[in-house]
C-alpha cells in the first residue's frame, strides 16, 4: 500500500526550507553587530588607556623638570649668597648689582630679600630697594615675608615656602658667616613667581606656543601642586577641586620642600574619543558591506528554495496521478461489458467472454442470476 504526503506536511517542509536561510542571515547579522559593538568598546578603552599613559608621561616629565628648575634656582641663589658673604659690610648698592644680574637672567625671580638674623631688612626688586617689614610690593606682602623668615629662623638648610604669598613661592637660603659654615649671619629670600616657575620648567599657557616641541601643554591637563609640609594651606598651584576627578599622584622631592603633584584630564577619565563619530560611521559602513550582500544572497536562496519546493510539489502530484492512472489501466485489463440498447442485456467482448465462460458476442439478461457480473462480485467497468 502506498501513502502520499499530506498537504500539512508539505507546507511544513516548505516553511522550513524557506526560513532556514533567513535564520542564518539573522544570526550572521547579530554576530556582525556584536563584533562592531565589541570593537567600538575596545577602541574607547584603548583611547582611555592611552590617555592615562599620556597623563602619567606628561605629569612625570613635569615633576622631573620642576626638580631640575628648582635646583637651578637654588644654584642661582647660592651665587648671591657668596656675593653677600664676600662683602657683608659692603653697601646695598653694590649687592644690588649682583641681584640685578640674577633678576635679568632668571625672569621668574620677582625680588630678593636680605634678612640678617632672619629679620627682614630690605627687598631688592627690578624697580629698586624697599626697606621695612610692612606694606606691599606689587603682590608681595612684606609682613608675610617677614613672618616666613622668622618661621625658619636658625634653620641651616634651604627652605621653599608656599601658601603665604599670592602668586609667589619664597625660597629661603641661609647665609653663614664663614665659607665653610659655622654660625649663621642670616638668610636671603628669593620671591619666585609660580607661573613663571612653571613656564621655566617647560609648561606653556599660550595657545600660540602649544605646538612647539619640548613644551608641556596644560590646556587638556589639570595639574595641582601641594606642599605636604603645609597641609593647612590650599594648593599653591592649580585648583583643589581636582580631588573629584580621581587624579594621579606623584611625590616631587624638591630640595627644601616636600611637594605632591596631582594630575587629571580636564574632561575626566571617561572622555569619549574625539573621532568616535567617524569611527562608528566607519564601523556601520563596514557592517553594511557585510550584511547587505548576505541579505541579498538570502533573498535569492529563499526564492530558489521556493521554486524548488513548488516543482517538488508538482512532481508529487504528477506521481500521484500517474499511480492512479496505472491502477485504472490495470483494472481495465479484467474485462469490459456493455449495456445494450434495451438496458437488460449485456454485450461481452472476447476477453470478458473467455473470462466468464460466455460465448463471444453473446447477450445475457442482466437480471438473470449469474449473468450479472456486478451482482456476482466481478469487478467490471461500464462503458456508456
Secondary-structure blueprint of this entry?
Elements lengths: L6 H80 L5 H14 L3 E8 L5 E4 L2 E4 L4 E2 L2 E2 H10 L7 E3 L6 E11 L2 E13 H7 L2 E2 L11 E2 L3 E7 L20 E5 L6 E7 L10 H57 L3 E4 L5 E4 L1 H6 L7 E3 L15 E3 L1
Parallel strand pairs: 9-10, 14-17
Antiparallel strand pairs: 1-2, 1-8, 2-3, 4-5, 6-7, 7-8, 11-13, 12-13, 14-15, 15-16
Helix pairs in contact: 1-2, 1-5
* Gap between N and C termini: 31 Å
Task: Note the total helix count.
Answer: 6
How many structural domains? Answer: 4
Query: Share of helix among residues?
Result: 40-55%
What integer is the average pLDDT? Answer: 81
Main sheet: strands, sense, barrel: 6 strands, antiparallel
- Give the low-pLDDT segments: 1-12, 365-371, 377-384
Keywords: Membrane, Transmembrane, Transmembrane helix
Transmembrane segments: 21-39, 281-302
Polypeptide structure, described:
With 384 residues, the chain is α+β, with helices and mostly antiparallel strands. 45% of the residues lie in helices and 22% in strands. It contains six helices and 17 strands. It has helices spanning 7-86, 92-105, 142-151, 194-200, 276-332, 350-355, and strands at 109-116, 122-125, 128-131, 136-137, 140-141, 159-161, 168-178, 181-193, 203-204, 216-217, 221-227, 248-252, 259-265, 336-339, 345-348, 363-365, 381-383. The strands form five sheets. The chain has a six-stranded antiparallel sheet with strand order 3-2-1-8-7-6, sandwiched between helices. Strands 16-15-14-17 form a four-stranded mixed sheet. Helix 1 runs antiparallel to helix 5 (276-332). The longest helix has 80 residues, at 7-86. The radius of gyration is 54 Å and the shape is rod-shaped.
